[in-house]
Amino acid sequence: MTYYSGHPRILIAVDCIIFGFDGTDLKILLVKRAFEPEKNKWSLMGGFLQPDEALDEAANRVLKQLTGLEGVYMEQIHTFGDPKRDPEERTVSVAYFALIDIQQYEQQLSEDYHAEWFLLSKKPRLIFDHDNMMALAQKQLRYKAAIHPILFELLPQKFTIPQLQSLYQGVYNTVFDNRNFTRKLLSTGLLIKQKEKDKGSSKKGAFYYKLDKRKYKANFQAFLNFVPKPDKFL
Amino acid sequence: MTYYSGHPRILIAVDCIIFGFDGTDLKILLVKRAFEPEKNKWSLMGGFLQPDEALDEAANRVLKQLTGLEGVYMEQIHTFGDPKRDPEERTVSVAYFALIDIQQYEQQLSEDYHAEWFLLSKKPRLIFDHDNMMALAQKQLRYKAAIHPILFELLPQKFTIPQLQSLYQGVYNTVFDNRNFTRKLLSTGLLIKQKEKDKGSSKKGAFYYKLDKRKYKANFQAFLNFVPKPDKFL
DNA sequence: CCAAAAGTGTTCCCGATACACCCATGA
DNA sequence: TCATGGGTGTATCGGGAACACTTTTGG
């Protein structure tokens, strides 16, 4: 007999808010729920915590099921425990957000789960409290990206400065001055200019940059200030 | 039969990291665990999530049991789910931190739970992963207090600027320049000077201030900058 | 009158912002 | 040649940091 008898055991879920960047737009990955209740409605990708599985493991497992990707940047954001949040049975859900480079994402897998990328502005209504989770994830993403260089996690190995700016603008849903943005960015010393250009989006072409991973890891904790007028956060 | 059969139900706990300020030092409230396993060892105050109880409710219930206080500032910080974190039975724990004014705290209740305030530097080793929780709470407190005026939650209604400075210095374990600190503080417009002085800690005495609650609430989201050289955060 | 803490101003510098024109190229 | 997006420099301003002396009063 355990010392903890008399206390309820409860279902625990993990839900992932998956942000992706395709080189132009910031998007979110949603799935059509495959089982009851709320079958066939749009939802975050989630799953139940298994015995002997850590929370982070569960989140990574769920992410891998959906995208095939491993080693992706993930972070726990909040745990939702309203007793009525899932009408079927009480479930406490631990929400994670993940940042992925859409170009690395294996398209075919989305078929299996009816997964689809949505522009943030065109996201459908989600089941349960997933809209709240989503909103919180966005807030935290803004909060954190204003201070830490996490948005690099969304970029391919080679990227251009205009792409990066467009990513930041997507996250903050605003427009930055490109001169100031470039200057701040380069002043971090985190970027290594390449010789090739990306000719995809303009005639002149934009130079590719790579991330200096050594410095990136060393400076990850550093306090940056990419975002002008740090208005209202979290 | 539920749609969710086949998934494990798991114990869920809530643990509170309770920071307090006595006018001089920043402290943390710990209890001697009253039951097995690890009975009589120092631990965070915690409890199990009850049926039909939201997570925040559980955290407030636990806090009230220990301190008798309600309406205290509390915030969820992280959920810990290592399968082996509690050797007795798998338990996922949602950690909260709370900020309280020690002078408001009813001393007598501590008896019932063998609770004791500890200086952060003199904290004993805690059970399970509570030391980790504690460390994370401290990090988050620093992180957040650098940006938001949450440390006011730890103060009594009337407080002096030297007290406030000593609180900030306790949180960041460092020393600030008092001229710069005072100027920043007053420039927020959040403080209302009182006519009386606190003669407790000096011969000259320090003027009391009160918080302008209206402005406090309005500006809570504002971006401040109390902490010099925002070094390494979270 | 002395010790101990409270209170107060100025200077300097860096970093954020605002702002506009030239460049390279493919069509 | 022209339209499109890429790339760059300067001037101003505000806020943060460094820094030391005077004030008060109980003992």
Provide a descriptive summary of the structure in words.
2 copies of one chain form a homodimer. In chain A, the strands form 2 sheets. In chain A, strands 1, 2, 3, 4, 5, 6 and 7 form a 7-stranded mixed beta sheet that branches. Chain A has a 3-stranded antiparallel beta sheet with strand order 8-10-9. By secondary structure, chain A is an alpha+beta fold. The first copy, chain A, folds into 2 domains: 11-145, Alpha-Beta Complex (Nucleoside Triphosphate Pyrophosphohydrolase), CATH 3.90.79; 150-219, Arc Repressor Mutant, subunit A (Orthogonal Bundle), CATH 1.10.10. The first copy, chain A, has helices at 55-67, 107-113, 130-145, 161-172, 178-187, 213-219; strands spanning 9-21, 26-32, 42-43, 45-48, 73-80, 91-101, 115-119, 158-160, 191-198, 206-211. Residues 230-234 of chain A have low confidence and may be disordered. The termini of chain A are far apart. Helix content of chain A is 28%, strand content 29%. Chain A binds chain B through residues 2-4, 7-12, 35-37, 48-56, 58, 76, 78-83, 88-92, 94, 147, 221-223, 230-234, and chain B through 2-4, 7-12, 35-37, 48-56, 76, 78-83, 88-92, 94, 147, 221-223, 230-234. Strand 1 (9-21) of chain A pairs antiparallel with strand 1 (9-21) of chain B. Chain A binds a DNA duplex (27 and 27 nucleotides) through helix 5.
